[in-house]
Amino acid sequence: MTVQRLDIEQALPRMQALAARLWSPESRHHPGQLAWSAAYGEPEALGLGPAFLVDDAWAWLESADWLEVCGTDPDAVRAVVRAALAESADEVTASTLETETVAIDALLDHGFTEVGSPWFTHHLLDLADLPDVAVPAGYDVRAVRAGEHEQRSKVHRDAWSPTSKVTARAYERLMATPPYRPATDHVVVAPDGEWVASCCVWLDETTGVALVEPVGCVDAHARRGLATAASVSALTAARDLGATTGLVCPRGDDDYPAPARLYRRIGFVPGACTRTYRRG
Ligand SMILES: CC(C)(COP(=O)(O)OP(=O)(O)OC[C@H]1O[C@@H](n2cnc3c(N)ncnc32)[C@H](O)[C@@H]1OP(=O)(O)O)[C@@H](O)C(=O)NCCC(=O)NCCS
After folding, report:
1. Atom 23 of ligand 1, residue of closest alpha carbon
2. Which architecture, in CATH terms, is 4-120?
3. Is the pLDDT of residue 1 over 90?
4. Thinking of the domain 124-272, which architecture would CATH place it in?
């Protein structure tokens, strides 16, 4: 089996197509998550490694010490994992969904062992059950417009961290990375015009699955339902564009429970959890 080695920029569309073709509630990868992972920061800041592809599987060194794997054909998955490990750091970590037995078996066969680590729980929502958008008085929620990458990246950093890699230049590039659409990237605007909460939703047209990634609200406006409003509004826009299922992947362990509570309050239902494996 010939494994093709490509830089992530060239590989991304093929990786997204395979993730969409193989997507099910039991699989880790969504085209929008891959776009976010490949473009949330400026390329020099992310240190992204190459991807290794065959028709039915890929392995991506998201960094020299972090491996992502996609595929359900055992021989194909083994081939791409083997190729990636030939270029990885000595110690490398991989995360899968607990349901991805083919990927897990390939990692175990290549010397990985499961390690304790914060885990994430995939949550799903039938978008027919999405509640109405409720915005507190004085606030407004709307879609981002082309050219607003500077403000959009700022509201993300203000909620997450001033040292976040999500710079204006990075967000401009992200906005040019399919399947990004401004129509499903929503912000909450405070009465004074400041952007205070945000939610980006990624609609995969192949599956109709709309991934929520990421969500944020600045501390000064917390617990007023603004992250909820941004999320419900962006998901509603995705549903209007044909999405049928919402997906979000918050932390599942007890150390950071707030986001999972937020999504469950919207109606998301927990599904499979991630597992972490390490080699070296
Ligand atoms: C998590 C975060 C998005 C919440 O934003 P928010 O606008 O305050 O959230 P909401 O007001 O819509 O809260 C909805 C529900 O989420 C839960 N929640 C939100 N913040 C919480 C907290 N700090 N502790 C516990 N539960 C919390 C509650 O159930 C809340 O409902 P309630 O206020 O009626 O109890 C915000 O704190 C944030 O940006 N954090 C940093 C980035 C992050 O972790 N993003 C989410 C992961 S993608």
Report:
1. 258
2. 3-Layer(aba) Sandwich (3.40)
3. no
4. 3-Layer(aba) Sandwich (3.40)
